[in-house]
Amino acid sequence: MRTIIRNGTVATSADVFKADIQIINGVVTAISERIVPVEGDHVIEATDQYVFPGGIDVHTHLAFPGTVDDFESGTKAAASGGITSIINFTDPKKGQSVLDNLREWQEKAKPSFIDYGFHSIINECNERVLEEVPDLAEQGVTSIKLFMAYKDHLMVNDVEMYKLMKTAGEAGIITNVHAENGDVIDQLISDALSKGNTTPYFHASTRPCLLEAEATGRALAIAEAANAPVYIVHVSCAEALQQVEQAKKRGVQAYAETCPQYLVLDSSYLAKPFEESAKYVCSPPLRDKSNQTVLWNGLASGLISTVASDHSSIPFEGGKALGRDNFAKIPNGCPGIEDIFSLIYHFGVHEGRISLQKFVEITSSAPAKLFGLYPKKGTIAIGSDADLVVLDPRLSRVISKNTQSQSTDYNLYEGTKVQGVITYVLSRGEELVQEGRFLGKPGRGEFLHRKRFKKI
Ligand code: URP
Ligand code: ZN
Ligand code: ZN
Ligand code: ZN
């Protein structure tokens, strides 16, 4: 069957133009001013609507311990919100083979509604791990993730980071880094608790911008020494971004990501009563509002390459509530896979902070290029997968937990009115959302065997 999306305003990272799009066997096969439908064609009417490449969310924690979204509910939420591919993290056990861990995650991901890949988290460095890392690329996993915080469970030290980045870089694997100085943060936390400072407000004050910037600068310097590409996840503040800017100027293969929560929310949410504030505990923490403009400008200028959700669906009851007497016991992380596309469209394009082309670049094209998916994903072009989102800019909606597919018992953006409503979502030509109704089938998503890193 042939599908034609008629008369939409097609947006790519380069152009915005009116066109019809022809889809055959899940792939875009023609883009032209007028494609005449014939009997038996499936026609989607997109007059006065935008047609975007599907969002690619490269920072998700589906099926993590303590979270309530697995690959089925999480990718349903993603698809409902315009995300057609994700790259999820794996969660390794110490001593386990990295490749065995990957196979476990490939099993967990099978119920997905949309296509998925993995970044392998590496939380130890020894001969076995260093031997296994290059094999990941053979398996289509061309990125790893390292943590500079969360001691004992995830954190690696500087020498380990150097060795892993170097080994990864030589194999065409880009290293994601969670950059916060975990050692000093742990000390600040115990100082705060010993003074009786136990509320979520102190989550922010014990993880200051200074210590995000310090770790960011260190990660970038180590990547430079290793001559390896590095991707700093969830950049939250001006000081950290400054480090990225300086490294880029030195020629480091450095890229930065930010998340909607840092663009839209701020640290005042952490000063609310526990029932509210605990929901907003993520790391790095929400920052002073002044950072928002810096981050938006970073996206507009290209200093920040991507936006991603960092979706961690920690429920309030049985999750966030565990830290009622001690903020350090609140599981870190924010749900956001369902609203990222809408929030960036509304606060970015609708409110005039970024262009339509930039919107496509940061939500789709740049993630696809950095993580080895382009041009199969990340654009609307002949031969590309028909992963498409039709959005009606004339309509608006109010974000609420009562209408979401995410499994959390709250939504961080409750009551926020966003301009732009998604009317259709196609994944490889299949309608997952049709006139706003969800039609997808679980298990149709495919593993994304990604290409090795190439500098962009
Ligand atoms: O607070 C966060 N971001 N939790 C998820 C894990 C991580 O650090 O990315
Ligand atoms: Zn992180
Ligand atoms: Zn994360
Ligand atoms: Zn408005």
TrEMBL record:
Keyword Hydrolase: yes
Domain (Amidohydrolase-related): residue spans on this chain: 50-430
Entry keyword set: Hydrolase, Metal-binding
Superkingdom of origin: Bacteria
Cited Gene3D superfamilies: Metal-dependent hydrolases, Urease, subunit C, domain 1
Classification via InterPro entries: Amidohydro-rel, Hydantoinase/dihydroPyrase, Metal-dep_hydrolase_composite, Metal_Hydrolase, Metallo-dep_Hydrolases_sf
Enzyme class: hydrolase
Record's keyword annotation contains Transport: no
Molecular function as annotated in GO: dihydropyrimidinase activity
EC annotation from Swiss-Prot or TrEMBL: 3.5.2.2
Cofactor dependency: Zn(2+)
Similarity annotation: Belongs to the metallo-dependent hydrolases superfamily. Hydantoinase/dihydropyrimidinase family.
Protein known as: Dihydropyrimidinase
Biological source species: Effusibacillus consociatus
Lineage: Bacteria, Bacillati, Bacillota, Bacilli, Bacillales
